[in-house]
Design goal:
Radius of gyration: 16 Å
Number of helices: 1
Number of strands: 15
Shape: globular
Structural class: mainly beta
Strand content: over 45%
Number of domains: 1
Order of helices and strands: HEEEEEEEEEEEEEEE
Strand order of the largest sheet: 8-7-10-4-12-13
Helix content: under 10%
Length: 215
């Protein structure tokens, strides 16, 4: 009960905070705008919050920080998604970018929901390397999974994190966002890899999409 109340309070507070230490702002407008990678044949869009413009999919001027535990602090980010129909998830395509420190790689996974936060690991982690530089658009970090069944109307999560130690644990990056009207939930941040998920500001949703087959 205490944890639930803490999460609700954090959601309210973050929605009222002008500057969040987990949000990274990128100076200047990127001159590099390219289309994202092609969608594999046979895969359908299960969830997406990306723009319809192929060269302006998301806001490349800022994003939620992702940092491995080898640094002074660690931040892991989770993006919620809810399929409309029963489906099988086989790919996540997200706007995770490299922020020029540590190994250029991040882990992407699919999690089930547990009381409104990431719960059971369903697929992954998949290590994605050679991420695009922060402040560019619109190359995506793409992870392929062994297809996992997802129930229509049920919430799931794409989680970006790092190994606890070793190669990749020093990764520093940002998850670029899409602007939305203030909504109840943008996603969650796991601060210091302590399994306590804290709500993100509702008007800065981590940008990405989930692909697979229906059914």
């Amino acid at each position: 009960m205490f944890v639930c109340l803490l999460l609700l309070c954090n959601l309210t507070l973050l929605a009222q905070t002008a500057a969040d230490p987990r949000f990274v702002r990128i100076a200047g407008k990127s001159a590099i705008h390219v289309p994202p990678q092609d969608v594999p044949a046979g895969l359908k869009k299960i969830y997406s919050n990306l723009s319809a413009s192929k060269t302006d999919l998301y806001n490349d001027l800022g994003g939620w920080r992702i940092a491995g535990p080898s640094g002074s602090v660690s931040y892991f980010i989770a993006m919620p998604f809810t399929p409309k129909f029963d489906s099988h998830v086989s790919q996540a395509r997200v706007a995770v970018q490299y922020f020029f420190l540590g190994a250029n790689q991040v882990n992407l996974s699919i999690y089930g929901d547990s009381g409104g936060v990431p719960g059971t690991l369903l697929a992954g982690p998949v290590t994605v390397t050679n991420l695009p530089d922060s402040g560019t658009c619109c190359t995506l970090a793409v992870a392929d999974f062994t297809p996992v069944a997802a129930t229509g109307g049920t919430q799931y999560w794409v989680v970006a994190d790092t190994p606890p130690t070793g190669e990749g644990s020093d990764f520093n990056g940002v998850w670029a966002t899409v602007a939305t009207p203030v909504i109840p939930l943008a996603g969650y941040s796991n601060f210091d890899n302590d399994d306590v998920w804290i709500a993100l500001n509702g008007d800065k949703r981590p940008a990405g999409e989930v692909l697979g087959t229906i059914p």
